[in-house]
Design brief:
alpha+beta, Aminopeptidase, single chain, 24 helices
Length: 956
């Protein structure tokens, strides 16, 4: 058998290459498959009494039969259908229920459907104010332990589950938020099924208007039942299909109810990324948590984002498995929350007029392989991190001290002397050789990966949009090839048995510093996303301890020096005799038993002069001291002689400590980050940030293999060089979009109703892509296209041209030209009170229930007739108000708005109304033209709340 395979676990090129490659490949393949595989729905369509998967899937198809934004006729159709389905569900369960409207406070039946056509709210965010009239549907299921009127007094501690039934104007809303809505219907069916009454009351909210600034959830706060629930589960979709992710959680205590779900999926990192604003969208979670003071969970779909808010957010691009994943998780969470009768969610208010739900502890959570869910408090993570920071260096130092006392500390040692031999020479150990090697390797390999990230960002920044795993393959291949090359070169120049040990010590030191940084962030900013560092630090500390402890298997340095000091003395004796013979030649003596065996071998320096014994003893070349390695049969090539007695199998233990657990966590994070963020660059997010994030993750994932790379054979690196070349060429030259990964462009059409002129705008991060799209549109042919930096979509370019006039309002007479007929779309009159700096405007729009007032200069105060206010939602910011958004539950509704201003003698502005209702009706030919003629790699979505904005100027 070949020497490298005499021991299949020996630290030799063959075993190291094969075993470590198998470990990494197993982890990558398993985690990649698990990441994209949605757990299968059970074959039985009725997995539990009260649930029906087939029924739920059919309901989803009905719900998503067309676009249904708040400002559309189909939205009313969907609302009526939901009320009908609730009736059917309750009748099928033989549940006693009643239907109420508005703010009726008498709920006698066990189940009450609230058809809320009464609540309205005015609130302000930044310099934009909103008046919104709600059309929410609320179902109250009384708990077995609820007092009859507890929901009215706020003395109860119920549970809220929420989903929104409106879609965007350019998407069917299958996952945003159709599956959430259908899940709520099934939850109502489950908890009203005989024998399933919850212990605590359940409020099921189907809100309308989420897509237009979370209006539905905000106006829910005006209904008296909103103060009943202390905990909540929000169901949302920020992607289209896939698995439902635990996006966010308010605290550890509420997250524990997610812990037992059959297929957990989530990490606290997602919450930190979402809170950072990297994902440019939000959910009703921030209303229930931030404004109302509830404690709860945010569960949502998150990929693929290219289908989000487009016509591919439909049932064809999702699955029954996705529906079941959200539904099964929701049932488990709500079973736990409604059964919890502790006081964990009762306590002080966390803000004025907020629900007294108490305060929880910050949590850390993540799943493992979609099977286990780990959860602990952030201060526990902090305590463990601080303990590890203190204890791990102490244990290593104590072990090193004990090793030194045992006279076996070859690490950090340059030479040693035999203590029992008088006048013995110093013998080189070469133990410090290779100490600074690993940082050089890490820096050079990582610089190569970062360089590739910068190169791709410069040449083809959107390639990650459709080919994220090609980017991953390029970065991993680059790091491994470069790290292997420098490790092999440095090891060939100065072989060292401590290459692996020193590399692990450097990994420990790097992770120790990272753990210090993570601990500071945990304490000061409550950021928990750095939890993998705790595991990598623990792993490197244990592996470093193995590197120290394995030296106890060596002979003492004194024994080693004694053997080689004697050998040096014999060589010195021979050299002394030889030199004397050269000065006073004598006949050759007969060889005896005491004759030196080395008398015929004469060492010389590069200058051809014999080298002194003392110089030779201090040299770094142990083989110059003793060419016979028979006493150390385990030596690898030209490494130090004493290394032959190191255990040959401990590298396997170190590999298993360094790689599996840390890499599982980091690979899962990398896959989640890739799926969640790779297509957000169409929203204007910086591609450089995403590529640098992948670069950092690549280094963190592959660094644990660094200590072993110098033992790799050339076969794998040669293959990876081919992978690197191929993926680099592809990533720099390939077109980044396809029919399955379409570029989202943002559409809006503006009509000046005073002149009848209109303009169509498309927005995208790159002018180059807009050019390719616009040149396919017949209406834009021959026109001069105006390009500007978009004010609607941050970090995007806006292309504008004269488009096909919209037909969102029926023409009053066929003979009237559109330019004249459009002047009747908006009606308003404005009156100023004498010479005061105040005015009242009355306005309405035809075939719409959404209008706006835009002011040239900020106003200081306003009031919408009939509006309610809530102290939890501020109205008048100090910097003034530049826009008032008006939403009516009635078509062709009328608003009366009083406003005031300061400083200026008068006020100018525009009255704007919005139109969205175009699904299949060809009322907006311009967007239909984009859908019909644009390349198949293009998807069109809304740029603002309205697809068409018509406006008229006013002045007072």
């Amino acid at each position: 058998m070949a020497r490298g395979w005499s021991n299949p676990l020996a630290f030799r090129p063959g075993p190291v290459t094969i075993i470590s490659t198998l470990v990494y490949c197993t982890l990558f393949v398993a985690l990649l498959v698990l990441h994209h595989r949605v757990p299968s729905a059970p074959p039985n369509p009725v997995p539990y009494p009260g649930l029906n998967i087939t029924e739920a899937w059919l309901d989803l198809k009905v719900l998503t039969d067309g676009y249904h934004p708040y400002n559309s006729r189909r939205n009313d159709v969907v609302r009526n259908w939901l009320l009908q389905r609730l009736d059917e569900i309750l009748v099928s369960n033989n549940a006693s229920y009643s239907t109420k409207s508005g703010h009726d406070r008498e709920f006698e039946a066990p189940v009450t459907i609230i058809n809320d056509l009464h609540s309205n709210l005015t609130f302000t965010s930044n310099v934009t104010s909103t008046y919104f009239e709600g059309t929410n549907i609320i179902v109250y299921i009384r708990g077995s332990e609820d007092e009859r009127d507890s929901w009215k007094t706020g003395s109860g501690s119920g549970v809220l589950v929420n989903a929104h039934y409106d879609s965007v104007s350019t998407g069917y809303g299958a996952t945003d938020d159709g599956i959430g809505v259908i899940t709520v219907l099934q939850l109502v069916k489950y908890f009203t099924y005989p024998g399933h009454q919850p212990r605590k009351g359940l409020v099921a909210l189907l809100n309308n208007g989420e897509e237009d600034f979370l209006n539905g959830a905000r106006v829910f706060a005006r209904h008296p039942i909103s103060s009943f629930s202390h905990t909540f589960l929000n169901l949302e979709g920020a992607g289209a299909g896939g698995k439902a992710l635990l996006f966010r959680s308010t605290d550890t205590e509420v997250t524990k109810f997610y812990k037992g779900v059959a297929a957990p999926f989530g990490t606290v990192l997602a919450a930190d990324i979402f809170n950072s604003g990297a994902v440019r969208s939000n959910t009703d979670y921030i209303v229930f948590d931030g404004n109302l003071g509830m404690r709860g969970l945010d569960v949502a779909f998150f990929e693929p984002r290219a289908r989000y808010h487009t016509d591919q957010d439909d049932t064809k691009h999702t699955s029954v498995d996705s529906l079941w994943h959200m539904l099964s998780s929701s049932v488990h969470v709500l079973q736990g929350l409604t059964s919890d009768t502790s006081s964990a969610f009762d306590g002080d208010q966390q803000g004025k007029n907020k629900i007294p739900s108490g305060q929880g502890t910050n949590g850390v959570w993540f799943d493992l392989f979609g099977k286990a869910f780990l959860l602990f408090e952030l201060h526990t993570l902090f305590a463990i991190a601080v303990t590890l920071l203190v204890v791990s260096p102490i244990i290593l130092l104590v072990s090193i001290v004990l090793l030194a006392q045992a006279d076996k500390l070859y690490m950090f040692s340059i030479s040693t002397r035999a203590s029992k031999t008088l006048g013995s020479l110093r013998v080189s150990t070469g133990g410090l050789r290779g100490f600074f090697r690993f940082p050089i390797i890490i820096i050079l390999a990582s610089a190569g990966v970062v360089g590739l990230a910068l190169l791709i960002t410069k040449l083809n920044s959107f390639i990650i949009y459709s080919s994220p795993y090609s980017v991953w393959s390029m970065m991993i291949s680059a790091w491994l090839v470069l790290a292997w090359f420098f490790a092999r070169v440095l090891d060939a120049v100065r072989p060292s048995a401590f290459h692996r040990s020193y590399a692990i010590l450097w990994l420990f030191l790097i992770n120790w510093v990272l753990l210090v940084v993570e601990t500071v962030y945990e304490e000061r900013l409550n950021i928990a996303a750095g939890y993998p560092i705790l595991f990598t630090s623990t792993a490197t500390a244990l592996a470093a301890l193995v590197s120290v402890l394995e030296q106890f298997g060596l002979e003492t340095k004194d024994s080693y020096a004694e053997k080689h000091s004697q050998a040096n003395s014999e060589e010195a004796l021979y050299r002394g005799s030889s030199e004397h013979a050269e000065q006073d030649p004598t006949p050759a003596e007969e060889a005896t038993e005491s004759t030196s065996l080395l008398r015929d071998s004469k060492r010389t320096t590069f200058a051809k002069y014999p080298s002194s014994n003392r110089d030779q003893a201090a040299s770094d070349d142990n083989e110059s001291i003793n060419d016979d390695s028979s006493l150390y049969p385990g030596i690898y090539k030209h490494e130090q002689l004493w290394s032959g007695r190191l255990p040959s199998w401990t590298w396997v233990l170190q590999l298993l400590l360094l790689v599996p657990m840390p890499c599982i966590l980091l690979i899962q994070i990398g896959l989640l980050l890739t799926s969640a963020a790779n297509q957000t660059i169409a929203d204007g997010n910086s591609p450089l940030v995403i590529y640098l994030a992948l670069s950092i993750l690549t280094v963190l994932i592959m660094a644990p293999i660094g200590p072993f790379l110098h033992r790799y054979t050339y076969h794998l690196p040669m293959f990876l060089i081919l992978v690197l070349i191929g993926t680099t060429i592809y990533n720099t030259l390939a077109f980044p979009f396809s029919g399955n990964n379409r570029l989202k462009v943002y559409f809006i059409q503006r009509v000046d109703l005073d002149s009848g002129l209109n303009s169509v705008s498309l927005m995208s991060p790159k002018k180059y892509f807009l050019n390719q799209i616009i040149e396919t549109l017949p209406s834009a042919s021959g026109q001069k296209i105006e390009y500007t930096n978009s004010l609607l979509r941050k970090d995007t370019v806006e292309a504008t041209w004269t488009g096909i006039p919209p037909e969102v309002v029926p023409n009053p007479h066929p003979g009237i030209p559109p330019l004249i007929g459009s002047q009747t779309w908006i009606e308003f009159n404005i009156a100023r009170y004498n010479k005061t700096k105040s005015a009242t405007i009355t306005l309405s729009g035809k075939n719409t229930r959404a209008c706006r007032l835009r002011f040239k200069s900020p106003i200081t105060h306003f009031q919408v007739q009939g509006s309610d206010y809530d102290p939890r939602f501020p109205v008048f910011p100090g910097e003034g108000i530049e826009e008032i958004r008006l939403w009516s539950r009635e078509w062709d509704g009328k608003w009366v708005v009083h406003f005031e201003w300061q400083d200026l003698p008068g006020m100018d502005g525009r009255v704007v109304c919005l139109w969205n209702d175009e699904d299949g009706k060809r009322l907006i030919p311009a967007i239909e033209e984009v859908r019909r003629f644009a390349p198949d790699w293009v998807a069109v979505t809304k740029a603002s709340d309205g697809l068409v904005e018509g406006s008229k100027a006013f002045a007072v």
